Amino acid sequence: MQNFGSNYEFTELSLLNKVLKPQQEFEEEKAHYFFQHLRDFTYRKEINLLADGGFKATAKRLAFEFEKLFPSEAVIQFEAYGFAELDYTEKELQTRLSNEEFWLSVLRRERKQVIAEVERAIGLVSARTQKYCGDITYSEYKVSEQQAIEYLERHYLQSPDGKKVSLKEVSDHNVSNPYVRFCEWISRVKGFDMVAQEQDHHSMMVSLTVPGYMHAALKKTGHINGKYNGATVKECMEHLNTKWSRIRAKLKRAEIYFYGMRVVEPHHDGTPHWHLLLNCEKRHAKYIKKVFKHYALQESANEKGAEQHRVQFEDIDRKLGSAASYLAKYLAKGMTGFKEEGEGCRHAGDLAADCTRAWASAHRIRQFQQFGGPSVSVYRELRRLKASSNNPILESARIAADAADWAEYWRVMGGFKTSRKDHLIKPIYQQSEVIDKLTGEVIPPNDSRNCNKYGEPKQPSMKGIRIGHQALITRSEGWEVVSSPPQSNGFPRQGEPIRTGGLGLV
């Protein structure tokens, strides 16, 4: 065994401190491999994503350089850097590429993902080191989380007539709060379960994972998987999303309806896998399993353990518990945390949720998603209504939403097999009016002056709900964000749990 930093000359050696701990040892062969590929992986042309000191100077330089380019040239140049693709038109991308703040966000996002990938690829994320994410990813997530809390604490929403509400207070009472989000998800799972029981539907848990060669580390030993092909978390997610798209398309062609929830979580080494709570008509359950298995085993079907582990099904036995009880531990793991025994950092298993959220943040993963069922946006908007309505359908939906009765809400919206476009209540999206702070003038929607910082018309936002020809505006006041002086340096507060390298959480 050779010390990773002592016997190899490397011009970027100081950068390794961002990824490697001085006492960490690696086999010589793995060290060679790492040095060979580190620069290609962590550099975007001349930009070092592991550099200290932030990216403000780099962002300013790039914005200045791209401002001189024609739109088509700017797009080509941006693609040459190898950053993640951006879903903008050529014109939209041109205005952003000449903006310093845009470049700063791109560089910070890429840096966060690169660090998480390097930690995973060299074995610093495993059941024997640190589960789910590496030390740097975790600590930087906690710092950013504290900075976000500080921002909320010193900013307020202010209405035109002077009313103020703390952003922190707003955050504590909506789904930004993990406990509020957990409760909402559980109520929706229970609602789906009630519908399934009333309709005599079959319910099952489906676990879907990637082939063995996409897993970075072995669970028993924590060593790098000898068959690992270097697949990133992003590539693993693309693999799973492709499978899911094909499965849904196949079932749609067969006119098979299903609904439920999907949870994405990391294996011990940060490799993603999915858990789906799926409800369907009993006569379709066997065929759905067959379709899942077909697509899950399209690659490396003869791989050891593929038949047993690539996709797994667990039929829900309601004598043992409801669907909510089956899914609750996965929701808790990604939102609120729970006690769990394990190696490495998991000796303090109640912080599993922190590590899981840090992992999802670094890789920009949407952890929770509903498929099938009614609109969540309308459901939340109905909960804002306090006054009763003369419209019996709207009133029934309002009462159901206010009581967190997801099953009744879905019945009012149209029920099982009713497509989203045919639901009785729909959301209203409109561009917001803004107030000129210098003149006090109210600038209406669609006015050429009502633009974002890139000079583009602002995107429509939720304003209310519509049933038939009746529109109900639920967000009429023009609130704006105002600030108070900063109060801390953005570092974790005293008593905040800190994750230490190789020693777990203290």
Please tell me about this protein's structure.
By secondary structure, this protein is α+β, with helices and mostly antiparallel strands. The protein has 3 domains: about 1-120, no CATH class; about 180-370, Alpha-Beta Plaits (2-Layer Sandwich); about 375-415 and about 425-465, no CATH class. The protein has 16 helices and 19 strands. The strands form 7 sheets. It has a 5-stranded antiparallel β-sheet, sandwiched between helices. A 3-stranded antiparallel β-sheet has the order 6-5-17. The protein has a 3-stranded antiparallel β-sheet with strand order 12-15-16, covered by helices on one side. Helix 2 (about 55-65) crosses helix 4 and helix 12 packs across helix 13. The longest helix is centred in the N-terminal third of the chain and has 22 residues, at about 100-120. The two termini are about 30 Å apart. Mean pLDDT is about 85; it is low at about 1-25, about 340-350 and about 485-505.
